[in-house]
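Sample pair:
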Amino acid sequence: MTIDKVKKLVSVQLNKPVESIADDAKLIEDLGADSLDVVEMLMTLEDEFGVVITDEETSKLTTIREIADMIDGKKA
């Protein structure tokens, strides 16, 4: 499932237990990511899932679920 894989990658990037990451967790407000963390995560997700995430899309992605939904939409 995409959301589980996204959570796993985010947990590695932010050094947080995957169990502590909720589907609706906000990257910056809830998980403490900074802008560099977000850029690095999105680059990892692009490589992992074989998708391209535009700058416009990046600005709209704030939660784990939004990221997973966007990736699923690109893979369909």
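The mean pLDDT is 94.
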